[in-house]
Design goal:
Length: about 240
């Protein structure tokens, strides 16, 4: 009888559900690695995220959140997508430092032109197929272009992501230091065609000098569940 009861439990409660980890937020950092991003810029982006994720304000936002933890994955996109650092549960400074160290070492694995629609759908899959449960899921999309050279359309992929209850935020990278190669309308395009879902927002990276600071501010907003307007209002009198 005991054996039958155990077998019943295994079927009634699959191992994946039993082993599921619970956090306050699932966050996909979806970073541009397309042809416009050379090796130096790729390393610069990774270092910017590594610096931001270990910033005291980001650590404080994690530690003071309802669950006291977030799950983060870093993915680079081009014609294909590549996981640079797999799902990591960050609860404080030590786990954030571990994520940052893992981020700066792996070789480049994403190449080619832009496939934004495919990248968004891959991010959705990574959220849906992990062993983590969270009340919120966010794709943090960054890039310096809106072109979609292959794969699913941006509109179709975005609609699928939003229908799954996942929010898409955006970080347009303007790059004025090399002649504003990103294009003058990138912010408008990202606002109209990329972001969406509950509390969606966009924060612009104006250039290299402020990149890590922009990422830090965006992470604090996402972890805290705030928008830029809400953040400014909450901190107006500090």
């Amino acid at each position: 009888m005991l054996l039958r009861a155990l077998i019943f439990c295994l079927f009634a409660f699959p191992l994946s559900a039993q082993a599921q980890r619970e956090v306050g937020l699932e966050l996909v950092l979806l970073a541009d690695a397309s042809g416009s991003i050379d090796a130096e810029e790729l390393a610069f982006q990774r270092q910017g995220y590594a610096t931001a994720i270990t910033d005291p304000q980001v650590i404080s936002a994690i530690e003071t959140s309802i669950y006291g933890s977030v799950a983060v994955i870093y993915v680079e996109w081009a014609s294909n997508t590549a996981v640079v650092v797999d799902w990591t549960i960050i609860t404080g400074e030590q786990t954030a430092q571990g994520f940052a160290r893992a981020l700066t070492g792996p070789p480049r694995q994403a190449y080619g032109s832009n496939a934004i629609g495919a990248a968004l759908l891959d991010a959705k899959r990574l959220i849906e197929q992990n062993d983590i449960f969270a009340p919120r899921a966010v794709i943090d999309f960054s890039g310096d272009s809106i072109r979609n050279s292959s794969g699913p359309t941006i509109a179709g992929a975005r609609a699928e992501v939003l229908a799954a209850g996942i929010t898409i935020n955006a970080l347009p990278i303007l790059r004025p230091e090399d002649g504003r190669r990103a294009g003058a309308n990138l912010e408008e395009e990202y606002a109209n065609r990329i972001i969406g879902g509950p509390g969606a927002f966009m924060v612009t990276a104006e250039g290299r000098a402020s990149f890590a600071e922009t990422v830090r501010r965006k992470l604090v907003l996402e972890i805290s569940g705030l928008t830029p307007d809400g953040y400014e209002t909450a901190n107006c009198c500090d």
